[in-house]
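Q: Got a minute? One more chain.
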Amino acid sequence: MRIPLYLIISSILEIKFISGRNISNGIDNKNYQKSKRGTIIEECKFVNTLLGKDAIYDCCLDKDIECNEDGHITSITFWDAVKNPVMPDSFGSMPYLETLNLHYAELTGSIPKDVGNLNNLKYLDLSFNKLTGSIPSEIGNLSNLSYLNLNNNHLSGSIPSEIGNLKNLQNLYLNNNELISIPSEIGNLTKLNYLYLESNQLTGSIPFEILNLSNLQYLKLSSNQLAGSIPSGIGNLINLRSLYLNDNQLSSIPSEIGKLTKLRYLYLNTNKLSSIPSEIGDLIDLRELNLSNNIINGAIPSSIGNLIKLTKLNLGNNIFNDPIPSEIGKLTNLEYLYLEKSNLRSLPSEIGNLTKLTELNVDGNQIESIPSGIKKLTNLRSLQLGNNQMSGSIPSEILNLTNLITLNLNNNELSRAIPSEIGNLINLKYL
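A: Always. Here it is, folded:
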């Protein structure tokens, strides 16, 4: 049977078409692979420099690097020191990068100014390195950033005003550096939950712009050189859980502190505070309160008895003129009570209600005797009664506190005779 000529011609044309298409696809695929390879080499420059790898190494193969299907780097996370711990001069081109985590990498050098070109970055952590210089203003270009951590470096100068452009920022950690000022633009960061600026060289008063960040839950400005009164605007931060203003030169606490009813941790120690407002008793969710190392010379407000969730109370190193209020006996969840060197002449009998106490320190006061109720504090591990004015025999009330590990009675006027009942203190290691 003879095949018609038109069918033969049609078949030949179809074969040529298919062959041509396959050749074309092969060329396109080769070009794609070449382009992809070029992208990988370009985007891996920064990483390969830190890793000490060849320039052509495909960093997407590294366990600490994540790339998408097209070979673009999306995440860099190093958990320890890198082979070449010198910050490169440039981050290079990484347009798809969302996470850059180089903490504890022991990096030296400064933050490259082209950090602002990492447009998709959401998470930036350069903490616990040895970076120097200033925070580049270009960081304000990272409009998608929600997490910024530069703590524990040697960064200096002012925080750039451009940081106020980071409208999506929720976590900002700049603590433990050498920064000298906070820009007013920080008040633009209305989504902030965490603001840590402690252990810098900040001076002046607490910026009022911070007091408009109503979503703040954790604020740390401790260990700076901030002075003046704590602003009344602190009462605007109604979502605060933790407030650390210790180790500054602050002079007074406003009554508005009582509006922070969600507060759990309040540290105002080592300042120049002279009084405690009664509104402190409105902080009914408080777990830890530290007002030690101030010059408080008034009374401890009786409203302190409202803080029934307190587990730690430190009022040591003050100069109280009045006795401790009996209401302290309402703090039945208290585990740690520090009242050392505070000009106290007595302890209230109600202290015996604090049966969860494990540490009680009243060293360095003018106490002549201890209340009988102290014998009920059977969970005590440490009892510091040294440098007071107690006389006579060792108080019998403490000789049945069998969980005591440390008992300090030094520098009193007690009899040197040691009662046989001291043997009841079977866990005692330090006397």
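A: Confidence is low (pLDDT under 50) at residues 15-35.
Q: Perfect, thanks.
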